[in-house]
Amino acid sequence: MNFHARKPGQALARWIDKLWICEGYQPSHRLEFKLPDASLAWIINLKEDQIRVFESNRMDRLMILPGSIIAGPRSSYYYLDTVCQESCMGIQFKPGGALPFLGNLVGKLKDVDMPLEDGLGRHSHVDDFRERLQETSAAEERFQLVEQYLLRCLEKKIMVPKGHPAVAYALQMFEHSPAAAPSIAEIADMANLSTERFIRLFKEEVGLTPKNYGSIVRFQLALRMIREERVNPSIDMALSSGYYDQSHLYREFHKYANMTPTELFRRQDILENHVPL
Questions:
Q1: Burial class (CB in 10 A: 0-12, 13-18, 19+), 181
Q2: End-to-end CA distance of the chain
Q3: Which one, of 136, 74, 139, lies nearest residue 110 by Cα?
């Protein structure tokens, strides 16, 4: 398997986290699930013009979508068909970064996959964009085509939506100190907003409520400590990643990963949050 990833150019850096390409992914397993990371992405199948997803995360409800989709932020783990991942490309947005491109649609995308053209409009030429990506096999050329397309999407906007400063502040706090971030009520009070108004603004920009988002950020912090730093799931690790105690850590891992932190620590086959079944 060949995996290429890079950060976007300066013109897109405030909205896009990374661009990636996966080629030759042919695992022995047909199904896997992906751990939630609260991000919104555009996914493009470069091999065939379809992507198979499981509606409502039920394995008995297979849904066939076009080869270019919007993958909304997830509130739990979700199932994937590996056949669709053999040759694909992704645009991963920063939290709140999809707002200028998708507008008020972002707030409706929790746990949702939908055709990219439905989100951008019929004049977005999504099929032409996908065909141009297929015509070249050079990773850097594909990255450049993606950046050009994203910039054209912004140029077509009469007005590029801007996020609320309170949401930007909350995202910054979650990123830099998820274990010690101010409460939702405290952030709302600092911005002279009601708690309900702040929650609504946050969901409109990020796709998740602040509570959902904070829980997943905390889970991902603990996951990195377990998977990358090889920290044993102890009470100290739970507290340092923002959990009340070890039982809180285990409950959240069961919710978001369907396994215990100890089981995740022992597994060696997890790649980029993808867990084989």
A1: buried
A2: 19
A3: 74
CA 94 to chain centre: 8
Q: What are the tens digits of pLDDT across the range 90-133?
A: 999 999 999 999 999 999 999 999 999 999 998 899 999 999 99
Instruction: Specify whether the CB–CB gap between 91 and 39 falls below 8 A.
Output: no
Tell me 157's DSSP state. -
* pTM across the whole model: 0.92
Tokens read off for 29: 């397993």
CATH superfamily of 165-272: Homeodomain-like (1.10.10.60)
The mean pLDDT value for 11-37 works out to: 91
User: Does residue 38 contact residue 74 with C-beta atoms inside 8 Å?
Assistant: yes
Q: Where are the beta strands (DSSP E) in the chain?
A: 2-6, 16-23, 31-34, 41-45, 51-54, 62-65, 68-71, 78-81, 87-93, 113-115, 274-276
Q: What value, to the nearest 5°, has the Cα angle with vertex 159 and ends 156 and 162?
A: 120
Domain boundaries, the chain: 2-155, 165-272
The beta strands (E) that lie in 41-166 are given as 41-45, 51-54, 62-65, 68-71, 78-81, 87-93, 113-115
Can you give the pLDDT at residue 159?
A: 67
Query: Which DSSP letter does residue 271 get?
Result: B
